[in-house]
Specification:
The complex is a heterodimer of chains A (131) and B (293). Chain A is mainly α and 131 residues long. Chain A has 5 helices and 2 strands. The chains are: A mainly alpha (131), B alpha/beta (293).
Chain lengths: 131, 293
Amino acid sequence: MFRFDLLPSSATPIYRQIVDQVARAVASGLLAADDELPSVRAVAQLYVVNPMTVSKAYSLLEVQGLVERRRGVGMIIRGSLATALPERLAQLRPALEHAASVSRQLGITAEASIHAFQQILVATDQETFHE
Amino acid sequence: MNETSARHDAAAAIEVNHLSLRYGAVTVLNDVSFSVAAGSVLGVVGRNGAGKSSLLQCLLGLTVPQGGASSLHGCSSLALTDAVKARLGYVAQTPELFDWLRVREQIALIGGLYPGWSEARASALCRRFELPDDLRVVKLSLGEKQRLAIVLALAHQPDLLVFDEPSASLDPVGRRDFLRALFEQEALNGEAVTVVISSHLLHDLERVVTHLLFLDQGRVQLIGARDELAEQIRAVFTDTPVASQAGVLHTRKLADNTWQSVIDVRTLPAGSLPPNARMQAFGLADLFVALNS
């Protein structure tokens, strides 16, 4: 089942985090057509967030056409094709721009920043693998 | 965009109009007005002495204000009918329990007062909150007393819950259990459950609230839907103070002689900020600190 990575203390509202994470997972192909999202109740109980917040996020995903509500099943991913690489890169760009500005503020060279990013990519990849 | 009007369309579970409360020369509540739509979870936050507990007590008719009025489900707080009282659950800051009773006796006593009392629901809640039901109340720890007060407030399945610092003495596991119990709460009458909860534990609040009310020295400083506040309220950093005007909620000087303002992007007139102003989104804890410094 799809797992969220929710940070209630973040400045980004929880419903927005849910929408963004599903959109990214669909773009990457991690979530494919006919995959099921965990139920509103399950997400609320697991991550201890208000079910209304989860419900709001799912409704928004439905409006955006990424998921559909299927009777007796729940929320199902609609799209079948992973988004092309250029569009996925466009989605990544804001996060990288933020990282670039922080790294400039800290006076870290481009080379050292890129090296750190590569290490993080390898480390998080292993985490996913062993899960 | 139509959020405000939508909220007014939904039946208001709570209406507060120009509430004022003074103790001698001390103003506790100062012209407080707001309404809470049925089904909302309103978090009331503010520093110690901001008036949170007094506000909750006025809502419940336990404190009589000098001015203004409030109502629950359309019924004046000062003349609550038995029908409305049966739909209420309240946990006070200091649980009011009978020390000499055993836990199950205390539960049975309160249960007897409610027509819709569910023995099964009360037992399930006791198990969830790990309450030793044979112990006398006087032997319970503060955290256990608070858990018992929560069980007593939830078990008759009310649709309007008022919690005054409900989880202050609970450990992190107990606090998560409390929040989960809130999400599962279903009202006996099938209505949407409305919750008002005051707390200093902002990390708990931000998981549950749909709306937030910031109280400062008895006044409503800011109120709104949590998601809207997250998207519309911003910190702005400038070299000179931003002129006080619509949309500027608070301005303070920082240690490095620059200025931080809390602004509402919906109401701030265009062009009010200097071109080199830096804008930043707030988490709830940072917003609380910025508004109260």
